[in-house]
Amino acid sequence: MKTTAMGVIIDLTEEQKRFLDDLMIRYCAAVRWAFNRLLDGMRVQEIRLLVQEKFDFNSRQANDAVHDAQATISSQKELLKLNCENARKRVAFTLRRLDKAKSPDKRARLEKRLEKEQRQLAKWRKYIEAGKIPPVVFGTKELFIQRCKGKVSRQEWREARSNRYLSRGDKSKGGNLNARIVVIDGQTYLEIAGETVQKGKTVRYQRITVPIYIAHKPSKKTGQINGLNYREMVLGYLKTGRAYQVEIIRRSGRYYVHVTIEEDVPETYRARGGAIGADTNPDGLGVGWADYLGQFRGSIWLGQGEWTYARSDRRLNLIGEAAALLVDIAYRLACILVVENLAFKDDKSVTAKFNRM
Fold first, then answer.
1. Are 248 and 259 in contact (CB under 8 A)?
2. Strands (E), the chain
3. Which of 144, 218, 257, 322 is the most buried (most CB within 10 A)?
4. Distance from the first to the final alpha carbon of the chain
5. Are 121 and 84 in contact (CB under 8 A)?
6. Are 336 and 278 in contact (CB under 8 A)?
7. Cα separation of 128 and 139, whole Å?
């Protein structure tokens, strides 16, 4: 089970900013270059060696860049399958509606929609049959469109395409060789590997050390941590010497750090009061209670008719209140809470009623 703790780099000097910016530019360029070479069919090991030489990386940084490019391609292939399946379902759904439609105007609208959805399905199938993936825009498609319209400057577009650096962990190297988290006099620092230094037969790396703050939520009244104490979680994990991943992202002039650790899967918790199950509906929650033997103990309906017509902020607040009430019921009855995992796919392509639900 992976957990990601978020943090931010603080008190950066101008020299350290230039170092991080240059590192991000080279890393993102290496990912894009490796991505295109992989699509060309070049061997992975050959790409790694060329990335190491072309972008002045050590072997681990080159491996991380190529792995990042491979992950992008893999995710695009999975997304392509999902898009094709969803497009097929939309076509089948529209055909069913077309069979039931009697009004000429409604049939005309549905036929127009069906034609559009069939074109979309044919496009996804064409990519799958050719063994290719759709074009990928590094820096987001939305920003690319804005750049084409002249609403985004060239500098903003370049910054959006060169705003991250990823370093995977290695247990044999103390957790992470190129981006190591250390604690000195109670302050947490991030050591980032820079240029190589040859000392005889040994190769070392110049490192910059920057202070980081790992987010946690101490209460202003009690001083206790609200929710999970991610800082203590990460610092305790460092003592184990296990691998962890560090990703640095520049956003709005600040440098954020995402630390991903591998936690052990917790054992299944067996509550003495049994289980509270919640069935979510557009107008309320159906709540059932079963004891630890699985025997039915009772049920209740928490009606929320305002969900279906309230404005978004009001609706979000009402949902939050209902969730808090449900958790409180489970806590008072010493029960675990069981909820549905609902997945509504492509809800914008179906009926208005389904959209609202």
1. no
2. 2-9, 164-167, 179-184, 187-199, 202-214, 245-251, 254-262, 275-281, 284-290, 296-303, 336-339
3. 257
4. 32
5. yes
6. no
7. 25
The pair of structure tokens assigned to 155 is 């500098």
**Exposure of 105 in the CB half-sphere (CA atoms within 13 A):** 0
Task: Name residue 315's amino acid.
Answer: R
By the 8 A CB rule, do 199 and 205 touch? no
Distance of CA 297 to the CA centre of its chain: 39
Phi, psi of 216 (to 5 degrees): -150, 165
Q: Residues near 69 by Cβ (< 8 Å), separated by ≥ 6?
A: 31, 32, 34, 35, 38
φ, ψ of residue 252 to 5 degrees: the values are 55, 40
Pairing assessment for the beta strands 2-9 and 254-262 based on DSSP bridges: antiparallel
Residues linked to residue 262 through DSSP beta bridges, in sequence order: 2
Tokens of 172: 């044999």
Closest-CA residue to 9 (of 244, 239, 251, 262): 251
Residues 6+ apart with CB under 8 A from 55: 26, 27, 29, 30, 33, 62, 65
pLDDT tens per residue across all 357 residues of the chain: 888 999 999 989 999 999 999 999 999 999 999 999 999 999 999 999 999 999 989 889 999 999 999 999 999 999 999 999 989 988 998 999 999 999 999 999 999 999 999 999 999 999 999 999 999 999 989 999 999 999 999 999 999 999 999 999 887 777 898 999 999 988 999 999 877 666 666 667 778 899 999 987 777 777 777 777 888 889 989 888 899 999 999 998 899 999 999 887 777 767 788 999 999 888 899 999 998 888 999 999 999 888 888 888 999 999 999 999 999 999 998 899 998 887 766 545 666 666 666
Closest CA to 351 of 102, 106, 83: 106
Q: What is the DSSP letter of 56?
A: T
Distance CA 165, CA 16 (A): 14
pTM: 0.80
**Alpha-carbon gap, residue 245 to 258, rounded angstroms:** 8
Question: What is the CB-side half-sphere exposure of residue 128 using CA atoms within 13 A?
Answer: 14
